[in-house]
């Protein structure tokens, strides 16, 4: 009986070993938990290759809600050659993404093809890391950089590197000034939407932005209404 059981185990193991890497990759694409991917990658060399191929097939990666650091994110993004959308929003206090992580990500082959990036709430990043990443994201159309401490330096880099930008979220970016916004709207001629909630920018600046680009939508919607009301007040 023992010999039969041992033989059955060998046959089962042989069946697993016969699975082609392409099939393993298709299975691993279905995994959304990055912890599961990491564990699968450590099973054996063949599974590690399958995980790598599955990452290469993904067009979207979201780390929102996961406790990640610079190295762990880099390990997953570097093999994702076909990636179009990258979300590393900070939705947990344990997320430790820094400028070093953005520097590492900037070397990924997919960066020049990314159409969407979210750095929402990444309080540990600065202009230094953002400029490094954005300077290579030349296909970018949508950017969420709200809840960070960026300054006009980042906006100047975005204006110079992202001619296809269509929308940007600057929610709570209180260190951005009128100069950065003007550079952005003047150079990103496809820009159609700016979320400016919580920014410390004079209201008349937003009217100036709409004058440059009449189709520009500025959020929250009541912001421009407030500007118009101020403009209608009688002067004594």
UniProtKB/TrEMBL annotation:
Residues 19-60 form the F-box domain. InterPro entries: F-box-like_dom_sf, F-box_dom, FBXL15_LRR, Leu-rich_rpt_Cys-con_subtyp, LRR_dom_sf. One of its GO terms (cellular component) is SCF ubiquitin ligase complex. One of its GO terms (biological process) is SCF-dependent proteasomal ubiquitin-dependent protein catabolic process. SUPFAM superfamilies: F-box domain (SSF81383), RNI-like (SSF52047). It comes from the Eukaryota. This is F-box domain-containing protein. It comes from Escallonia herrerae.
């Amino acid at each position: 009986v023992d010999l039969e059981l041992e033989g059955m185990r060998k046959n089962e193991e042989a069946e697993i070993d016969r699975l082609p890497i392409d099939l393993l990759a298709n299975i691993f694409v279905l995994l959304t938990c990055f912890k599961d991917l990491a564990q699968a990658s450590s099973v054996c060399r063949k599974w590690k290759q399958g995980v790598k191929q599955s990452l290469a097939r993904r067009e979207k990666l979201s780390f929102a809600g996961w406790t990640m650091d610079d190295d762990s994110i880099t390990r997953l993004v570097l093999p994702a050659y076909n990636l179009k959308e990258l979300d590393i929003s900070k939705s947990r206090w344990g997320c430790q993404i820094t400028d070093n992580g953005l520097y590492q990500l900037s070397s990924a082959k997919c960066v020049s093809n990314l159409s969407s990036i979210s750095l929402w709430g990444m309080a540990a990043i600065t202009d230094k890391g953002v400029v490094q990443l954005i300077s290579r994201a030349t296909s970018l159309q949508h950017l969420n950089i709200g809840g960070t401490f960026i300054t006009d330096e980042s906006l100047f880099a975005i204006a110079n590197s992202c001619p296809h930008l269509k929308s940007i979220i600057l929610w709570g970016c209180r260190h951005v000034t009128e100069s950065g916004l003007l550079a952005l709207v003047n150079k990103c001629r496809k820009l159609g939407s700016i979320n400016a909630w919580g920014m410390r920018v004079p209201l008349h600046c937003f009217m100036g932005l709409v004058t440059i680009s009449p189709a520009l939508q500025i959020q929250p919607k009541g912001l421009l209404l407030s500007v118009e009301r101020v403009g209608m007040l009688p002067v004594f």
